Amino acid sequence: MRALVVDHTAPAHLSPAEVADPIPAPNEALIRVAAASLNFGEVKDAADPATPDGTVPGWDAAGVVVQAAADGSGPAAGTPVVTLGTAGWAELRAVPTTLIGTVPDGADLGAVSTIPVAALSALHVLRRMGQLLGRRVMITGASGGVGRYAVQLAARAGAEVVAISGNPAQEQGLRELGAHEVHTSVAEADRPVYGVLDNVGGPHLAAAFAKLEAGGTLINVGRSAETDTVLPPNALLGTEGRHDRSIRTFFLLADPSADFSADLTWLAAEVTTGRLAPGISWRGPWTRYAEAVQLLMDRRLHGKAVLEIG
Known about the structure:
By secondary structure, the protein is α/β, with parallel strands linked by helices. It folds into 2 domains: 2-114 and 278-308, Medium-chain alcohol dehydrogenases, catalytic domain (Quinone Oxidoreductase, Chain A, domain 1, Alpha-Beta Complex), CATH 3.90.180.10; 118-249, Rossmann fold, CATH 3.40.50. Helix content is 24%, strand content 27%. The chain contains 8 helices and 15 strands. The strands form 3 sheets. Strands 3, 4, 5, 6, 7, 14 and 15 form a 7-stranded mixed sheet that branches. Strand 9, helix 5 and strand 10 (181-183) form a beta-alpha-beta unit. Helix 3 (115-128) crosses helix 4. The longest helix is centred in the middle third of the chain and has 14 residues, at 115-128. The radius of gyration is 20 Å and the shape is globular.
């Protein structure tokens, strides 16, 4: 089969190549990939000299089941699906059925491919915050993949959403997704928040933590700032009566036994019906992978990039 593989001699650290077809384990289905969405983390990993040449990257992909799992779990052959796993930038991928969601017939598989890392992360972080109805929730990095889904899901849960995006041009779009306030910096938010979903890290995390109300929680998802977080002296002691605040980290696949199939199925239906916007800002055939990778690495994409496979 054809795939994009890590090639450190290539400008984008990727090259098309012929590789062996995957052999599914008993709990895995074989998927013919129609579309894959790119995440900054996997693009950065591909460029890391420690990543071996020949590695097939790719966490997010959507397609059709060509061989159902031998153990009887998961969808039948011919079912359109969205998948989370490894080696997604290829014509075929083998995926555990716990990481497969079914997709409505006729769905745009490119749009659905944006779901696994971004939408699942947003959904599970917001769930960890508990009841959001009537509470203020801050989303940093709000114009990115996770951020855009988080704004929509938090607004639908009844939260007053405070979106932070360094690009002023994103304000109208974020308001259309459900943000009540849009700021270019955390400092501009003038009232405390109950929870923070932080995609940025570094100084943004420290500033967002200072905005938490008593009992509030900040959950860090990403480190797009690529700098260390340094809290000011006595930051953890609380100010103006705001004590019992916490910082938590999040990693989607921290529990290898987690079953995401129901959540992936629900999210796919929401995107297909238009109740969730995928936020695709670049889309093209996978022969244009170098263009998409460069845009991501240069931080010139707000939202998701989708490669159409085949």
